[in-house]
Amino acid sequence: MTILGTESDDLRLTPQFEAGGSPLQRKIVHVDMDAFYASVEQRDDPGLRGRPVVVAWRGRRSVVCAASYEARRFGVRSAMPAVTAERLCPEAVFVPPDFVRYKAVSRAVREIFLRHTDLVEPLSLDEAYLDVTENKTGLPTATRVAKKIREEIWEETSLTASAGVAPNKFLAKIASDWRKPNGLFVIQPKDVEAFLVPLPVGRIPGVGKVTEARMKEFGIATVGDLLACDLATLEGYFGRYGGRLHQLARGVDHSPVVPDRNSKSISAEDTFERDIPLAETDEVIRKLADKVWNASRRDARVARTVVLKLKTAEFASMTRSHTPVKPPESVEELTEIALGLRERVEMGSGQRFRLVGVGLSNFREAVEEAVPSLLAD
């Protein structure tokens, strides 16, 4: 396994403190598994190694869950329609996703993280932030922690991971993508401005194609262009988000690594083989409500709001939600509310839908929900 980066890149872990005693500099590592689902498939089936692998169900409605680097060379990307991937790469091997297996590998990788720090914030099955300002293994630098983690992932799972080391989460996220696959990149505090200035604004996490296009209308193509704009100008262009962009252009991100972040919502959705009228969604809504209810039972909190999501044949998305006086207390209540939300969809009988989803949100601690009942007694 080739580990990229040099010892001179190390971010030292000796804590620095301001006069008030608060930490001056965090040491953040962002670890991102390389083509995770596809790599697991190639690891477990030697016949797939070196071949363009697309993790997806075949079919007109299916989307790509992951693509190996061999497939990416043909332009195949995650979230792309499977039929598009097949057109771009006719030689691709399509493998149906096995999330039970992927979750097992993800748990093994998480255990490796936790050997080094308790401050682990998972973003998905294949990536996480780690705060290693202080680490549990006594390694002297953040870079060495990142190297050790990548070595252990390789030794114990036979999979590669890329990592970024930086003074904050924003920079670490960019750094982890810099030398993919199987790479390590470090951004030193003294090098932040020189690193950021030439970057296209599209490299900023959260800046999608629509926002990037709007920025270009204002003559903003690089982070350096953002840096040249004052706060009032950016807020005038982008509202509250302009303030965030003003900070990121300067490499400022004070958000901490938050371990075991509670989910804001639990949901499940299904895409139909053919577009169907709203009246024919009963069975799917019942199945999705059952999945969501079972998943919510693993959370100690109580969900207050039921959400119905729909996507039309024309790809227009809409949601309807309801917060009852009392949270749903059974799968039957959840299903009844979800089915009832359809009545708030004001569309003609000829409208067809390609996707439906059911969700629970607005979570509260169980004790918060118990207080009103106690007062009522």
Walk me through this protein's architecture.
- With 377 residues, the chain is an alpha+beta fold.
- The protein has 4 domains: 24-34 and 101-191, 2-Layer Sandwich (Alpha-Beta Plaits); 36-97, MutS, DNA mismatch repair protein, domain I (3-Layer(aba) Sandwich); 193-248, 5' to 3' exonuclease, C-terminal subdomain (DNA polymerase, domain 1); 265-372, 2-Layer Sandwich (Dna Ligase, domain 1).
- Helices cover 36% and strands 20% of the residues.
- It has 14 helices and 12 strands.
- The protein has helices spanning 36-44, 69-72, 82-88, 99-116, 142-157, 169-176, 192-196, 209-217, 223-227, 231-238, 240-248, 282-296, 331-341, 366-376; strands at residues 28-33, 53-55, 66-67, 93-95, 120-124, 127-131, 161-166, 184-186, 265-276, 302-312, 317-322, 353-364.
- The strands form 3 sheets. A 5-stranded mixed beta sheet has the order 5-6-1-7-8. Strands 9-12-10-11 form a 4-stranded antiparallel beta sheet. Strands 3-2-4 form a 3-stranded mixed beta sheet.
- Helix 6 (169-176) links the parallel strand 7 and strand 8 (184-186).
- Helix 10 (231-238) packs across helix 11 (240-248) and helix 12 packs across helix 13.
- The chain is globular, with a radius of gyration of 24 Å.
- The model is unreliable at 1-8, 12-23 and 367-377 (pLDDT under 50).
